[in-house]
Design brief:
Elements lengths: L6 H10 L7 H18 L7 H7 E4 L2 H9 L2 H8 L7 H15 L2 E4 L2 E5 L2
Antiparallel strand pairs: 1-3, 2-3
């Protein structure tokens, strides 16, 4: 037996997960992403907040993800091939490319969500 959840219902379940720290905007963006994925593959996903919590993480920004992933600026810049003379836009593009090459990136007003890899 399956229960079909609305976007708001699924987002509310994520927000209520005491072991996760989803923002309202992040939870809605993630659920919409999963719904778009369902449409793309042509089948329904089983909604499991524990699996979602383990597979995805929310960050305030791409830079916040970068620092958590690599631990420090120098290591991150080396890994990304970023140089001091490169601008902020170039850095953000390099972070996006790095994530897209390895997983999923969901950008929304207020932060980003990355499928952990």
């Amino acid at each position: 037996m399956k229960t079909k959840l609305s976007t708001s219902q699924a987002a509310a379940i994520l927000i209520d997960d005491q072991f996760a720290n989803w923002s309202h905007a992040g939870a809605h963006a993630l659920v919409k992403h999963l719904e778009e994925f369902e449409e793309l593959i042509g089948e329904e996903l089983q909604f499991d907040p524990v699996v979602i919590r383990c597979d995805f993480s929310e960050y305030e920004s791409l830079q916040a993800w970068m620092l958590e992933f690599w631990g420090d600026i120098d290591t991150a810049f080396d890994a990304l091939g970023h140089y001091a003379e490169d601008g902020e836009d170039e850095l953000l593009d390099k972070i996006r490319d790095y994530i897209h090459d390895r997983g999923d990136l969901i950008e929304f007003n207020g932060g980003v969500i990355v499928r952990d890899f």
